[in-house]
Amino acid sequence: MNVLFLCTGNSCRSLISEATFNHLAPAGWHAISAGSQPTGVLNAQALALLASKGIATDGYYSKSWNDLPFTPDIVITVCGSAAGETCPAYLGSVLRAHWGVDDPSHVVGTQAEIDAAFERAYRLLRGRIEAFLALPLDQLATDRAAFKQALDRIGQLEAQ
């Protein structure tokens, strides 16, 4: 099963989601990330955060949703509401869910405040990914409506 984590720039939140999902996912499940308007560069602080968590990012890069090597089965948008951010709408016939997360790369403040924003985004995304992977995936794979409901509920979870 292929999961696409999608946002606008594909430099921070979708990268964190892709790398964390692939780090935790069972065999046969794979994530990729993309953006509707990719920056072309991965956020250095997001890369450092993932490295500090022991999560590999080798081979990851900022890419357009037009350049995907496969059609995803599930698309999860991770755009937040800060600064009126517009989330891209993937129009393919896939299972879709929205897991809004404010972009830590837009936080202005002390380094400690910026670090805290990145840590919060990571904890929120990791918690949601762990909840996703704890679902009865084999059962839900045959019930799209129930799978969508479960993914939508997960999108409402807050960071612990």
UniProtKB/TrEMBL annotation:
Q: Which GO terms describe its biological process?
A: response to arsenic-containing substance
**Annotated keywords:** Arsenical resistance
Q: Looking at the Swiss-Prot or TrEMBL record, what is one Pfam family this protein matches?
A: LMWPc
The answer to whether the entry has keyword Cell inner membrane is: no
InterPro entries named among the record's database cross-references: Ptyr_pPase, Ptyr_pPase_sf
Gene3D superfamilies tied to this protein? 3.40.50.2300
Q: Which residues form the Phosphotyrosine protein phosphatase I domain?
A: 1-135
Descriptive protein name: Arsenate reductase ArsC
